[in-house]
Specification:
The chain is an all-alpha fold. It is built from three helices and no strands. It is elongated, with a radius of gyration of 19 Å. The mean pLDDT is about 80.
């Protein structure tokens, strides 16, 4: 019974956060995170995207 209350409270918390985000027109755009990151974060993001698109071939150059 306690786990049911915990799950329902987490769902209610998520619903409240979604409501507040929609009310304030907060957009979670992934590109903004990359644009506002440091140079090393930018390299890491582009490397991760490259590996997702081309697989994790260890013999390929980045």
């Amino acid at each position: 019974m306690v786990w049911l209350v915990g799950i329902l409270s987490l769902l209610a918390f998520g619903a409240v956060i979604d409501f507040i985000a929609k009310k304030n027109s907060i957009n979670g755009d992934e590109e903004d995170g990359i644009k506002n990151g440091s140079f090393s974060e930018d390299i890491y993001a582009h490397s991760a995207i490259h590996h997702m698109n081309h697989g994790n071939d260890s013999d390929s150059s980045v």
